[in-house]
Amino acid sequence: MNTWIFVGAALGSFVLTWLSGYWLIPLLHKLKYGQTILDIGPKWHKAKKEGTPTMGGISFIIAVTVCFAAGMIILGYSGANYTGTDKPEFIRAVSGMIMALMFGLMGFLDDFIKVKKKHNEGLTWIQKVIFQVMIISAYFATLYISGLSRTVIMLPWGAQWDLGLFYYPIVGVLIIYMVNAVNLTDGIDGLCSSVTTVYVIAFSVIAAFMGMFGQKLLAYCAAGGCIGFLTWNAPPAKVFMGDTGSMFLGGIVCALGLGCSAEVLMVIAGIVYVLEALSVVIQSTVFKITRKMNHTKEGKRLFKMTPIHHHFELSSWSELKIDSIFSIVGLLFGVLAIFLALNVFK
User: Fold this and answer.
1) What string of H, E and C letters represents the secondary structure of 139-207?
2) CA distance linking residue 286 with residue 301, whole number of Å
3) What is the C-alpha separation between 334 and 346, in angstroms, rounded?
4) pLDDT per residue of the chain (346 residues) written in tens, 0 to 9
5) Which residue in 199, 211, 209 sits closest to 256, CA to CA?
6) Which residue, among 305, 278, 301, 280, has the nearest Cα to 42 in the 3D structure?
7) Neighbours of 316 (CB within 10 A)
8) Which of 2, 28, 117, 276 lies at a CB distance of 3.0 to 4.6 Å from 33, suitable for a disulfide?
9) Could you give the CA distance from residue 341 to residue 206 in angstroms, rounded to a whole number?
10) Judging by DSSP bridges, how do beta strands 152-154 and 160-162 pair with one another?
């Protein structure tokens, strides 16, 4: 496939996201769609970030969607056969894009409730789980009806693990974990945008190696959108992506991993997301166990605060340093995922 199509889609996504900030941010200010900061976070967050416009993820959602659609159309005119040999790739890519959009819509509802009620609690956790299960079920159903269902997971050492019908609940839980892990990563200025940029670049290489042009296009568009958003979201942020943006990016992360038949590589390349969510689980578990053992109201904490990026904040790391170090970690594991892909899919 012509390289210029993918590069053009990435540049288009970058430019659209960047330019949209000039009208979207003032609009969000006018609508008073400001972020409400919880008291349980670092104290300076409430003082410095309270009222910063949220739901800025709308900018790159529109940009990624438009450029992905345009890119797929141009690829069709350039030789992709969407009714023949390239049909499976078309279905996988489009289904993944739609899944990400549905997660973004759920995030939008969550943000909308928050800004209307002027507090940081939107959808209940039960409502979120129900929405997510419905979205994931629809994604799996689309692939199944299209004859693209599979139950095999490729392992990094080249072996295959056929889970049978257990594939769907196990991978479904993995999707929920990863999507919410991406959401948790969006806790300081620029972090989720920078880490996701590294992730999608890694998967653009994996998709190119596998010859999956739809996944490659989706990765390029997402990279352009994330970089474009960083021009507004880098410390100090002029706008937050909100759950609207982070849930959408969580969907993109999973769409690329599953679309490339690389669930294990998704976890490896997304190690920052995995550790962010895992830190919350570990902190909560240790706190509850030690509180019960000591028969007190307060348990012990392994971290100063979770998700773990807040631990480093409270250890006097600047937001820029956290963004940089976490992105480097993501880059190293992204490179590892690429090398493993050469072994798994050779």
Assistant:
1) HHHHHHHCCCCCCEEECCCCCEEECHHHHHHHHHHHHHHHHHHHHHHCCCCCHHHHHHHHHHHHHHHHH
2) 7
3) 18
4) 589 999 999 999 999 999 999 999 999 988 877 666 555 556 555 545 667 899 999 999 999 999 999 999 999 999 889 988 899 999 999 999 999 999 999 999 999 998 887 766 789 999 999 999 999 999 999 999 998 888 999 888 778 899 999 999 999 999 999 999 999 999 999 999 999 999 999 999 999 999 999 999 999 999 999 999 999 999 999 999 999 999 999 999 999 999 999 999 999 999 999 999 999 999 999 988 888 887 777 788 899 999 999 999 999 999 999 999 999 999 999 999 999 998 877 6
5) 199
6) 305
7) 7
8) 28
9) 7
10) antiparallel
> 156 is written with which tokens?
């990094």
Give the total residue count for the chain: 346
Amino acid at site 48: K
Distance, CA of 274 to CA of 271 (rounded, Å) = 5
Query: pTM to 2 decimals?
Result: 0.94
